[in-house]
Amino acid sequence: MRIVVTRRVPEAALVELRALGEVVVSDADRPLTQEELQEAVAGASAIVSMLHDRIDGAVADAAGPQLRVVANVAVGYDNIDVPALVERGVVVTNTPDVLTDATADLTFGLLLALTRRIAEGDRLLRARKPWSFHLGFMLGSGLQGKTLGIIGPGQIGKAVARRAEAFGMRVVYSGRSQPKEDLLRVADVVSLHCPLTPETRHLIDAKALSAMKHTAFLINTTRGPVVDESALADALLANEIAGAGLDVFEREPEVEPRLLELNNVVLTPHLGSATVETRTEMALLAARNVAAVLNGGEPVNPVHR
Ligand code: GLV
Ligand code: GLV
């Protein structure tokens, strides 16, 4: 059986996959184009995919009727046309839970870097600008007694809430049942943890941004298109909100150029789950999902019934 891996993954996962069949790993140090992807998957029984791969019916057809599983090495699977794959009898799996703490940690890192101006201070020193300590120098915002609004109270949202409570913050949630408008009105920090779906695309648009406090911060570690990035730049330039911490972008790897110019924006290149430990766990979990399906068992993390 042929197992196609679309990008380099930790060796431990390859060891598990090689026990199942012939493993082919893309040696391009970049995402494959759609054409290259279709070529690469030909004859595959399993595809181990990354969040930058668009896996749709055409890719499944290019693989062939023997394709049985697509194991996405990510918790989000907005890059996969799940109905098209299910229709073709292909199981789709993701990697929940193992990246919850790493992503919550990075969310808090962005929150602290933003509210305490850590990235801005680092830039100031590297620019070798003169400075001296004084009581009004580079003041940030404290977190204690402030309200964190979590949009998407899943595993990651709850893990961020636990950290916020340890910092003395009050936490409010919005999900399917609690309205987002109430949260936007009261939150000092709004953090996004909902998956990207047709309903959450541009959930944070110009209207939502104008509903936020002028002193509030926005953090996004889920998927870029949940925020209208151009509207966000407008809102920041108009001082409608106080700042933004972004790990994900609407058109990765591109970043809205106006955001790059702003000191009250902290940016990281999609690093939410990027620790050695977590990335190894994610790849191993994807391999375990492939093994379960190819061995005729139940997948560990199916994203559909
Ligand atoms: C990363 O963004 C993931 O969905 O795992
Ligand atoms: C998404 O999977 C979340 O846990 O919030």
TrEMBL record:
Keywords, sorted A to Z: NAD, Oxidoreductase
Listed Pfam families: 2-Hacid_dh (PF00389), 2-Hacid_dh_C (PF02826)
GO MF annotation list: glyoxylate reductase (NADPH) activity; hydroxypyruvate reductase [NAD(P)H] activity; NAD binding
Keyword NAD: yes
SUPFAM superfamilies tied to this protein: Formate/glycerate dehydrogenase catalytic domain-like (SSF52283), NAD(P)-binding Rossmann-fold domains (SSF51735)
Superkingdom of origin: Bacteria
Ranges where the D-isomer specific 2-hydroxyacid dehydrogenase NAD-binding domain occurs: 108-272
GO cellular component entries: cytosol
Limits of the D-isomer specific 2-hydroxyacid dehydrogenase catalytic domain: 3-303
Similarity section: Belongs to the D-isomer specific 2-hydroxyacid dehydrogenase family.
Name under which the protein is recorded: Lactate dehydrogenase
